[in-house]
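re: ur question from yesterday

yeah so i grabbed the chain u mentioned. its 330 aa long if i counted rite. heres the sequnce exactly as i have it in my notes:
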Amino acid sequence: MSNTQTISEFQKLFAEKLEKEAANIENTEPKNLYEPISYTLKMGGKRLRPVMVLMANNLFGGNIEKAMPAALAIEIFHNFTLLHDDMMDNADMRRNHPSVHKKYNDNVAILSGDAMSIMAYQYLVQTESPEIQKMVQLFSKTAMEVCEGQQYDMNFEDTLSVSIDDYLNMIRLKTAVLIACSLKLGAINAGADTKDANHLYNFGINLGLAFQLQDDLLDVFADEEKFGKKIGGDITSNKKTFLLLKALELSSPAQKETLINWIEKKEFDIAEKIAVVKNLYTELGLPEISKKLMEDYYQSALEELSTIKIASEKKEIFIDLAKMIMKREH
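ran it thru and got these structure tokens back, copy pasting raw so excuse formatting
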């Protein structure tokens, strides 16, 4: 496979493989356990994380087919986290489809999610690589970090004393490490030099932080139709996002009082709360501040990429990936 492949070609290649696997999973007994897993995997999405495994593998001259088990492991694990996240957040929709706990029930969502987390390892250990132990160790460390990030996120629900640094550490664990892991798994599988694999990991961390900041911004300011779920969910649930924490830091006493009043209200009109808080964020210039921080992480990601000892034309696809993440609308 040539190094000049596009992201969409990698997406197509992975989507075809995933479709076959999802069909096999759907036909496994007991159906009540496996059908929700297949349903989750067929919901769609850009499949960026598994594509990153394949791209990184390709960058260092690896065999794409041999990287596919790791790509499947990443995608299944990622979807497991979304399945359980939707349940914890009581979210009704995911990618314009009813979330698993809504379509089936909570118990099904718990058990099918558990099965997916195990299934991810079953795929990973199918990888043909002399470095399989290193890959499993990285995957396990990442899986635990994602759980830690989710716990911090939950801890933040009941307190306003969350610093921006606390928040950035939480999203590093909850979001960025899985993106970084995807890239490093592909690199390790292809036999990349340790330093280069680490630079690619750090590229992923910075990209992941920018990705989550973009997600927070989209949750408030996106076009709902393109976003695929209702906007304002973070505002409604008082989620400690960069926008909220920065608003508390920058607001005048009157603005802060308004914000805290809305945070403390137990009963409220959802549309009104979203409108008031969104307006306050706009007044404080938070979309611009958030975009500036995203840009800083984007530049840091490009610096990490530039230090990898591979011809620059082979790295252009990673710059395309970073741009895609920065400009996405959903």
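noticed a couple things. The mean pLDDT is 95. also The domain at 7-327 is CATH 1.10.600.10 (Farnesyl Diphosphate Synthase).
anyway ttyl
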